[in-house]
Design brief:
Elements lengths: L7 E4 L2 E4 L2 H20 L8 H24 L2 E4 L3 E5 L3 E6 L3 E5 L4 E5 L4 E4 L6 H6 L2 H10 L15 E4 L4 H20 L4
Antiparallel strand pairs: 1-2, 2-3, 3-4, 4-5, 5-9, 6-7, 7-8
Helix pairs in contact: 1-2, 1-5, 2-5
């Protein structure tokens, strides 16, 4: 296998996973499964509203999980800092605060003071281990020239915030609402 193949794409100053479309496909498939659960009466005789609520909740939860695990993780190289968006957090780190970039076992930013930030966009995997983590090395090559930029007086602290990205479950729930009304009032499904 070629060691030049990477699992990340760079677009401008943004790095994201090539498998992100699997998350979008998973979200769409789960929406379709939820609509199927709502539209098929089955043998229980449950009313349409109950089937719609169950199908919508299940598909929204799994679609959100697929979105968070595959589409959401990214790295942004900003003017004086790097932004690492993981599954549930976003961390902005000034370049001057980064002591070292490690690529063994995925991409890890070692900060001055001993704290570490792991980037989920390139996580630990058997394929990465076997190939030597070329994706992590690709990102590292872009980060290294930027390290140490900005003096001590340039400001900027490490900022980490919780970021749940609830757009997908809200969208899926809204689409299920539209499907419920279409099934109930247009197609007269009971």
């Amino acid at each position: 296998m070629s060691r030049n193949v990477t699992a990340v794409t760079r677009k401008g100053n943004e790095f994201y996973s090539k498998v992100r479309y699997l998350g979008l496909a998973g979200s769409a498939a789960m929406f379709a499964c939820g609509v199927f659960l709502a539209a098929s009466p089955g043998g229980s005789g449950e009313p349409l509203i109950n089937r719609s609520m169950v199908g919508g909740a299940i598909s929204a939860a799994i679609a959100w999980l697929a979105w968070v695990l595959t589409y959401r993780p990214r790295i942004y190289l900003l003017g004086e800092s790097i932004a690492v968006r993981n599954w549930f957090t976003e961390t902005v780190i000034p370049y001057r605060c980064i002591a070292r970039v490690r690529t063994g076992g995925g991409l890890t930013l070692e900060l001055r003071g001993g704290y570490e930030i792991r980037a989920c966009v390139v996580g630990k995997s058997p394929a990465g281990e076997w190939c030597g983590y070329p994706s992590a090395k690709k990102i590292k090559r872009s980060i290294l020239p930027l390290l140490g930029q900005g003096g001590m007086d340039s400001g900027g602290e490490i900022r980490e915030k919780l970021s749940l990205s609830l757009k997908v479950p809200v969208l899926v729930a809204g689409l299920h609402g539209v499907c419920y009304f279409a099934l109930k009032y247009i197609f007269h499904v009971a």
